[in-house]
Amino acid sequence: GARGRRVRTPSPARRRLASNMVAAGLEAIPANLPKGEDGYVEWDKVDVAKIALPPGDDMGVVSDDDDVNVEEVKMDSGFGSVVVVDNLPKVPKAKHEKLATVLKKIFGQIGTVAEGGLHMPADADGVTKGFAFVEFLNSQEADAARQQTDGYKLDKAHVFKVSRFDDFAKYDAVPDQYEEPKPKPYVARENTQDYMLDARGRDQYAIRFGDETEIHWNDAQKKEPVEVYKRSFWTESYVQWSPRGNFLATVHRQGVALWGGASWQRYQKFSHNGVQFIEFSPCERYLASGSTHEGGGDTSVVVNFFDTRSGAKLRNFQGPISDFVVHAAGSRGGLTWPVFKWAGPSPEGAFFARMGNNAVSVYSAPDMSLLGKKSIKLEGVIDFCWSPADPILSVFQPERGGGNEPARVALISIPSKKEIRSKNLFSVSDVKMFWQQSGDYFAMKVDRHTKSKKSTYSGFELFRVKEPDCPMEVLELPDKNEKIVAFAWEPKGHRFAVIHGDGARPNVSFYTMIDDASAINKVKLIGTLKNKTANHLFWSPQGKTIVLAGLKTMNGQFEFFNVDEMETMASAEHFMATDVEWDPTGRYVATAVTSVHQMENGFHVWTFNGRQLYKHGRERFYQFLWRPRAPSLLPPEKEAEIAKNLKKYSKKFEELDDSIRSEQDSHLAAEKRAVMDEWKRWKQAKTEMLESEEHRAKIRKIMTARYPNWREGGGEDVVETKVDMEEIIEVVEEPLR
Known about the structure:
Strands 20, 21, 22, 23 and 24 form a five-stranded antiparallel sheet that branches. The protein has a four-stranded antiparallel sheet with strand order 4-5-3-8, with helices on one face. The longest helix has 46 residues, at 646-691. A hairpin with a 2-residue loop joins strand 9 (204-209) and strand 10. It has seven helices and 45 strands. The protein is an alpha+beta fold and 737 residues long.
């Protein structure tokens, strides 16, 4: 390709000299320059190059000795839309067309390959040389192809190495003699966990509305948000916190950026053209990004994995959407994100998995390789999920063979791939899986159909994962034909809640997995609340408290319920609410109306017991996200001790709260004093003005003009007469009876 070359252009000095001298006035023109009859210089008779400017005055003309008029001209090579694909199979002439078809299919999913735009050089025997040139319609498509196919695995022996054609000129310009680069000075990064050091233990949240993204402290004592940072057009799509709250991710057409620290500097960026989805690993070390692309009549899927520390791309998965959608009988169909799901944290490493046809593939980080070099074969599998706390995989296989083979659910330990427990299920129409946050329990809601298959009924299969042999039991509601509206585990604890019923006001039942009255643990009903306006359940992250929410068709009805005491703490309403979010400490909860509704957009913040702290309206409100907290560094024993002696520790914070309230009261009193002082100053100014001689003179002038006999202080000269007047407002004629 052609290299950039330096071209000397005509100096602009000669073009600017005349205009500058004229602008300076005719008196600035030297007398020895030839002038015409009109007094203007005849520049065609002047050799501008020989004119000497006054010492120290360039008259706005920069010397040709400077480099400003030497322009760097980068010539377009004409190959900006071409990529070079290396590491291809070397095939004979008979297989040229087959390989070309495969390459066109792969690259045609990203952009449009130009007519005759695929060229595979071959040797004298007709065998391809292992690389090809692919030309697209424009350089943007070529850049996207390089980003998305570099590292693409055609088969075990052939992994694409894709480069832009123009890059070869850059590589050719690399000097043969190695010069050691100068080390960059170390620049310390800001602490991404500085928010955890807040002396008052406040939490932060991010909101996104219109073109704005803002981060605030939730200040419960002041009953208002305190702005931390804001930026317009910070993201082109949405924002997302990392699982431990260190980073805020923003999504753009070119890729993803991570932000953090006290000044919200950009921590890292990841290139992924057209990115739509992102997913962090629980440890925040890795980031997965995904996108779909239309092209050539087909839809392709691209998933990249990055190291959040270095920004390096670790692995790329790419292919037609059919490779990422399960086609088994009974599958729910469609592409769902995340395509790859992360396992719970484990000392044995970070794992993530992807479901395929009749298999689940588990990969390990950081090498991003297939665990054990083979997938877990699971005939007909249509769903899987991980324990949030451990690398344990739960999988569901529907009935097969026309109902002759039962449905099956299994718990599989990773990396050993050993089954912890499995259960065969009959007459199953659907299964939904629920893990408890601590990983102690696992539940399945099983929808079964009757023999006639004309109706269905529901029940639960409950697993005690961390008990010996993983015991399992079945729970059926008193009326098993009732519709199950919602199910939710207590995040920290042993209870769960179920909304069930067919009417507009269903029932809510609470169960426990621990029966103190029995020698063997078994599920036990705690109590049932009748006729509740609720269709969603939101447990506090700390357990004990739950919000029974009536969203969507129930127009934002909320009940704050204490499960320990089985009593309602408060009932509230946030009309048209669409979202409910607990803060990570379980002290506060936010409700929001997002832009799915055109009216009433904004959010409310409440205490755990249902007392409203404040509310804010925002036009085109999109997101409310509490910032997660990093895991506690205290052992469970220390946390238990703090909970036991909470009054001793809380005294310090109560004193701080009192001082804030006192400061607020003082501030309010100061505001009142300021208003009173302002009134007194205004009154004093008016009094002085009324008593001034100037004002009195004005009054005398007005009164004597109106009343000629008026004398100042002579009130007897003014006679006031009171006149009573009557006015007929309406006359109504009424017939005599």
